[in-house]
């Protein structure tokens, strides 16, 4: 199926590694001109070189700290100067859920505030910065990357993901008349460089080895495996396409069936 993404311009925040990198990879494979941005330029430059060599399409690495509106605006301005348009924004710059302490007795205010500033308000800043350009073009796709903790189980990381779900729904109402859709995906256990940290943290709590924790997740997942980052790219690629124009304001789990609740 042709996703009709050729020559579309996509920004992927947190695009230097993990899920963001493979989302950028898939969008580039589909013909997008991709901007990847984050705070660590060395990761971005390496990822841009790798993806561009693989796909033959331009990948532009740009510095961006999503806690600072000035650098967000600078990144968007540079994208417009270089490519002349912005069609797609994938918000993915955030600390993984397993990194932030979630127990009420040990969590610190500065951890929560920093986490919300990066993931929730950071997503808002980036969306705000690209909105005028998407409106001008009459087309836009905003895809936010959340996490299953928004559906329960963890206090601090759950708060941020629930806030993003609310923001996604509200912005879909505001931006829909301008041809802009806004959606949210909730990844499950994805094989990224950070996932080992989660296994180690959970192992300490459960008195298990990291591998035992990993196997526990696998055994509790109907498809009996963890997920590959590129699988997030497949879903995001569709949501970013003109073919997904009727889908907006949705929170979509992509977790191999790990979530047992029914969401209607």
UniProtKB/TrEMBL annotation:
Tell me any Pfam family this protein matches.
Answer: adh_short_C2
Tell me which stretches of the chain form a coiled coil: none
Domain of life, per UniProt, equals Bacteria
Return the SUPFAM superfamilies for the record: NAD(P)-binding Rossmann-fold domains (SSF51735)
Q: Which family does it belong to?
A: Belongs to the short-chain dehydrogenases/reductases (SDR) family.
- Which PANTHER family does this UniProt record tie to the protein? 3-OXOACYL-(ACYL-CARRIER-PROTEIN) REDUCTASE (PTHR42879), NADPH-DEPENDENT REDUCTASE BACG (PTHR42879:SF6)
* Name under which the protein is recorded: SDR family oxidoreductase
Q: What taxonomic ancestry is recorded?
A: Bacteria, Pseudomonadati, Pseudomonadota, Gammaproteobacteria, Moraxellales
């Amino acid at each position: 199926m042709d996703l009709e993404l050729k020559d579309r311009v996509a920004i992927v925040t947190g695009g230097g590694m993990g899920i963001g990198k493979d989302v950028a990879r898939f969008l580039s494979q589909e013909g997008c001109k991709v901007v990847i941005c984050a705070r660590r330029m060395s990761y971005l430059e390496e990822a841009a070189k790798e993806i561009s060599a693989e796909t033959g399409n331009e990948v532009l690495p740009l510095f961006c700290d999503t806690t600072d509106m000035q650098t967000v605006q600078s990144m968007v301005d540079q994208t417009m100067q270089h490519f002349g348009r912005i069609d797609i924004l994938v918000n993915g710059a955030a600390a993984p859920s397993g990194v932030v302490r979630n127990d009420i007795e040990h969590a610190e205010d500065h951890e929560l505030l920093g986490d919300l500033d990066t993931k929730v308000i950071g997503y808002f800043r980036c969306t705000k910065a690209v909105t005028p350009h998407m409106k001008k073009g009459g087309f836009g796709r905003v895809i936010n990357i959340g996490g299953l903790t928004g559906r329960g189980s963890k206090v601090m990381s759950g708060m941020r993901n629930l806030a993003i779900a609310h923001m996604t729904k509200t912005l879909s109402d505001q931006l829909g008349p301008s041809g802009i859709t806004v959606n949210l995906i909730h990844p499950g256990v994805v094989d990224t460089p950070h996932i080992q940290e989660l296994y180690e943290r959970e192992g300490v709590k459960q008195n298990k080895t990291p591998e035992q924790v990993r196997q526990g997740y696998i055994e509790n997942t109907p498809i009996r495996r963890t997920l590959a980052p590129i699988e997030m790219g497949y879903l995001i690629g569709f949501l970013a396409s003109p073919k997904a124009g009727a889908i907006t304001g949705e929170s979509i789990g992509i977790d191999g069936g790990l979530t047992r609740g029914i969401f209607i």
